[in-house]
Amino acid sequence: MRTETASPDEVTAPPPTDWSEARTRVHAVGLAAALPAVERPLAEADGHTLAEPLTPRTDLPAFPTSSVDGWAVRGTGPWRVTGRVLAGGVAAPLTEDGTTVEIATGAMVPVGTSAVLRVEESTRTADGLVDGVPRATPEWRRPGEEATAGEPLLPVGTPVDPAVIGLAASCGHDNLRVRRQPRAALLVFGDELLTEGPPGGGRVRDALGPAVPGWLRRYGCQVSPADVVGPVADTLTAHVAALRAALGSVDLVCTTGGTMHGPVDHLHPALAELGADYVVNTVAVRPGFPMLLAQVVGADGRARFVAGLPGNPQSAIVALVSLVAPLLAGLTGRPLPALPHVTLAEPIAGRGDHTHLALVRLDRVAGTAHPVRHVGSAMLRGLSAADGFAVIRPGSAGVAGDRVPVVPLPLLPGERAW
Ligand SMILES: Nc1nc2c(c(=O)[nH]1)N[C@H]1C(S)=C(S)[C@@H](COP(=O)(O)OP(=O)(O)OC[C@H]3O[C@@H](n4cnc5c(N)ncnc54)[C@H](O)[C@@H]3O)O[C@H]1N2
Ligand code: MOO
């Protein structure tokens, strides 16, 4: 891994990192700093990541289980009824041929059962015996049919979703060992930013303070309202103080603006003052080029991260999907997200030796990507109509019909469903 210490005059900057390499490097650095494993009750485990493989505590099912309502019979019929077993009960063995117990779906099949006869396929003789022909295929689930005790079912790094939680419960777990969820703060830089009312008179609305926490939460981060701070005054002292305070309580501090070297761009000098090391300092991608990721090792020896998102609002989101998403995957012990591929419906220009991340709308039925309009780096209109960014590799242009990777926005089901 290449790291350099921030220097106050970074105007002669190092060469930008290739976009794909930046993703891979940031993910690897995140994995190396993976958050500690903690126990969470199942009811609180949604959205976490497994820190140990999921294994059943018993065979699944744990006992032979009837899959129908009917009769557990022994030997050939007709059968004399000796009792009944319901789901949740412990069945007494069937010890004599020609006997049966009434059995409910989900009930334990008694030892000695030779077949289970469905109730609707059974008849009663005049003297009260049960008669019928059991199906040839077993009507009960064998122990271990789904899984055997201790069998690894899901690996470390699996995101915990309701399906995983349900499986864990059926495996007999009360708690799951998961990675602690990352905590993030957001510092908004820029004296020109208004936090209410219409823009004008040289000032624009802060569009990132209200939006970035929602994106971070969709990536599985915890962001408390108190950790969204800004606009932070455009002085080096205020930047250093804000960064220091935030780094004291979270794993990742995202900043917006001030990544360049303008008269009031203080991020690089502030990182130098904090003794931060760059993981990535500028990326060969358009838009979003001045994005950065730096790490600061705390007194406890644990790395905390600063993601510098450029001030241009769309560029800030490019930095989120390019650097912050892989970092968070690493910190939670998840693999680097694989990029799905789609077919371009229309041409998309290349950006020379930079990767071009171009906002696209996906047609999920056709599997095609359509460029959206209003995609200037200072604009957010295109983003609000897009599903993600098509990746146009350096030195290439997108031609209609090309298969290209897409970096999805972390949208929830139902969003963009119009
Ligand atoms: N001499 C050069 N100047 C710039 C270059 C360059 O290569 N050479 N690159 C441009 C690119 S690309 C970007 S991206 C921006 C990044 O600049 P900063 O990260 O330092 O951001 P600022 O200067 O603070 O702001 C840029 C722009 O974005 C607006 N902004 C900032 N924060 C917000 C916010 N929270 N909500 C809405 N809009 C925001 C700000 O008002 C500026 O218009 O640098 C270029 N310059
Ligand atoms: O990289 Mo800037 O982000 O092109 O606007």
Automatic annotation (TrEMBL):
Gene3D superfamilies: MoaB/Mog-like domain, MoeA, C-terminal, domain IV, Molybdopterin biosynthesis moea protein, domain 2, Molybdopterin biosynthesis moea protein, domain 3. It is an enzyme of class 2 (transferase). It catalyses: adenylyl-molybdopterin + molybdate = Mo-molybdopterin + AMP + H(+). The keyword Lipoprotein does not apply. Residues 185-330 form the MoaB/Mog domain. One of its GO terms (biological process) is Mo-molybdopterin cofactor biosynthetic process. Its EC number is 2.10.1.1. InterPro entries: MoaB/Mog-like_dom_sf (IPR036425), MoaB/Mog_dom (IPR001453), MoeA-like (IPR038987), MoeA_C_domain_IV (IPR005111), MoeA_C_domain_IV_sf (IPR036688), MoeA_linker/N (IPR005110), MoeA_linker/N_sf (IPR036135). Pfam families: MoCF_biosynth, MoeA_C, MoeA_N. Residues 129-155 are annotated as: Disordered. Catalyzes the insertion of molybdate into adenylated molybdopterin with the concomitant release of AMP. PANTHER family: GEPHYRIN, MOLYBDOPTERIN BIOSYNTHESIS PROTEIN. Belongs to the MoeA family. This is Molybdopterin molybdenumtransferase.
